[in-house]
Amino acid sequence: MNPRYLPLTATVAIFLIAYAVCIAQYPNMLSTRVIGNLLTDNAFLGIAAVGMTFVILSGGIDLSIGAVIAFTGVFLAVLLQSTAIHPLVAFALALIITTAFGAIMGAIIHHLEMPPFIVTLAGMFLARGMAFVLSIDSIPIKHPFYTTLKSFYYVLPGGGRLTLIGGLMLVVFLVGILIAHRTRFGADVYALGGGTATARLMGVPIGRTTILIYALSGFLAGLSGIVFSLYTSAGYSLATVGVELDAIAAVVIGGTLLTGGSGFVAGTLIGILIQGLIQTYITFDGSLSSWWTKILIGLLLFAFILLQKALILLSDRKRRHA
Amino acid sequence: MTGTLKAYAVRLFPQVAALAIILFMVSLAFPGFFKLSFQNDRLYGSLIDILNRGAPVALLAIGMTVVIATKGIDLSVGAVMAICGAVAAASITAGHSLAFTLAVTISTGILCGLWNGVLVAVLDIQPIIATLVLMVAGRGIAQLITEGAILTFNHPGLIFIGSGSLFGLPMPVIIWLGFGLIVALLVRRTALGMLIEAVGVNRRASRLSGVSTGVLLIAAYMLSGLCAALAGIIAAADIRGADANNAGLWLELDAILAVVVGGTSLLGGRFSIAASLLGAMIIQSINTGILLSGFPPEFNLIIKAAIIVLILVIQSPRAQSAFIWLSRARATEPTKGQEAK
C-alpha cells in the first residue's frame, strides 16, 4: 500500500474500532439518531476544520478561526437585532468581511514574510476584540427566518435527523475534497506545503496561493460562524474559545502532516467524528467527567504525531537505500 | 565596560521608550498615576500594581524568551500553570508542609517541561505541535487533580506568596525580579546564552561544532516549565484557590507577545531577557492603563492586535532592508533574512 494512505487508514480504523467498542458497551449508540446528532453538533467545527486543513496542508497555521466564528455570530446577532435587513443579506455581509479578513492576513504573511503563527495570533486578538466592541452580551436571534432554516431536516431511516447544518458540513467537505484534489489551486496548496522554494521553481504563484488559502480559511470560518449562530440561535463574543485547537487536533488526527504537503480533507472529517464520538461516549456513560475528552484528544494527538514521525523516518530510510 | 553598557542601552532603548510613552499617556488620562504611598510596610500605587499584576506574564516571558531563542515556542505554559496551581492546592489542602508543596509543584512544572523538551529534542517534533499536546491535554489533567472543583486553601504561607510583601514590595514582584536576574546572569555570565543562540540560529551547525543541542533544548523547555510552575503558584496563591479552567488561560499568548515586543525574533537567535521583561510590563501597562483611563476594556484586544501588527511591520525582513537602505550612511549590517525552510 502507498504509505501516503497509512495515516488516513489508521484514522478510519481507529474510528471504526472506537465506534465498535462504544456499541458493544451501549448498543443504543448504533442508531441514525446518534449519527445525525454527531453531524449536527460538530457542523461548525467541521466546516472550520476544512479551512484549517488547507492552511496546514500549505505548511501554515490559522489561530484566528475561533475568534472569527464568535465575531460572525455577534455581527449577525447585532445586525438582525438593530436593523431590518434579511438574514441572507447579513450572511453575505459576514462572509465578505471574514473572507477579506483572511485575505489580509494572507497578504501580511506573504508580503511581510512573517510567521503565520504570529500574524494569525494578531488576527485572533483583532477578531475577538471586534466581537467585544460590537457587544459583550449574549444576544438572542429571534428572526423567523432562523426558525424556518432550523425546521429543514431530512429524516434518516431509524428516526435520525440530518439537519440543514449537518448536511451543509458534508457538502463543505465534499467541495473541499474536490478543490484539494481536482483543481489547480489544490495542487498549488500541496506544492506550497512541500516547500516554498521548490513550489516557486515549479511556477506556483506563491503570493496568490497564500492569500487565497487564508481567504478560504476566513470564508469557511465565517460560514462556520453562521452555522454556529443557527445552532445556538445567539451571538456571544466569548463563544467558541479554543475552537482553533480542536480544529488543528482534528486535522492532525485526520492524518494530515503538520509540516504540510501531505494529507486528505476527508481525513479531517473522520478526525472531527472521532472527537465527537469521544464526547458522545462520555455523555452516554454519564459518570465520566467531560475533561476526559481533552485528555483523550491530547493522547490521540500525541499518538498521531508519533505515527507521522515514524512514517517520515521510514520513507527517508527507503529513499536513502534507493 | 562602558561599551557593554552602551550596547545594553541601545538594545533596550525601543522598549524603554515605548514603556515611557505608554505610562505618560496613561498619566494624562489618570492624573494620580505616578503617586506612590507607603502603608502597612509596603508600597502602594498604580505603578506597583502594574509590577504586581504583570508577575505571571513576566515569569512566563523569562522561560519563553529562552525557548524562542532556540527557535522553538512553548504553547503549553498556560496549561502547565493550571496543572501546577492544582498540584499546589491539592498538596497544601492534603496537609503537606509548604516546603514540600513548593518542591512538588516546581518539580511538576519541570517535569512538564521535560516532556516538551524530549518531544522537541529527541523525537524531533516541531515545537508548536509538540507543546500543543500538553496545551490541549493539560487543562484536562488539571481538572483531574482538582476533581472539577475550584480547590480553595487557607494556608497563610502559600497565600503569602501571592499577596504578601517583602522589602516594601509585593512578593510576586520580588519573585519575578529575582528570578529574572538569576536567569539573566546565568545565561550572560556564562557561555550558556551564546550556545542557546547558536542552537536557535542553526541547530545542525551547532551540533556539528560540538554544542550538545539536545541537552540545551531540553533544558530550555524545562526552564519554561519551571517558570510556568512559579507563575502557577502565584496565580493560585493570589486567588487562594486553583481554578483549572481559567488559571493561566491565554497567558501563553501574552508571554509570546511579551517576547516579541521585547524584540526577540520568533525565528530564533539573539535574545534579551531584560527586553522581554520590559515587554511584559508594556503589556501590563496597556491592560492597566485601559482600565484606569475609563476606556471600555473591550478595546484591550484591539489595541493589543494593533501593537502586534506594528511590531510585525517593523521587524519584518522587508522593512528592515528598507531601514538599512535609508540609513546607508552608517555602517550597514547585513539583513537577517528569513531562513529557508
UniProtKB/TrEMBL annotation, chain A:
Its main location: membrane. The chain crosses the membrane at residues 6-26, 38-57, 63-81, 88-111, 117-141, 162-180, 211-236, 248-275, 295-314. It comes from the Bacteria. It is found in: Cell membrane. Pfam families: BPD_transp_2. Keywords: Cell membrane, Membrane, Plasmid, Transmembrane, Transmembrane helix. Coiled coil: none annotated. InterPro entries: ABC_transp_permease. It is a multi-pass membrane protein. This is Galactofuranose ABC transporter, permease protein YjfF. The gene is yjfF.
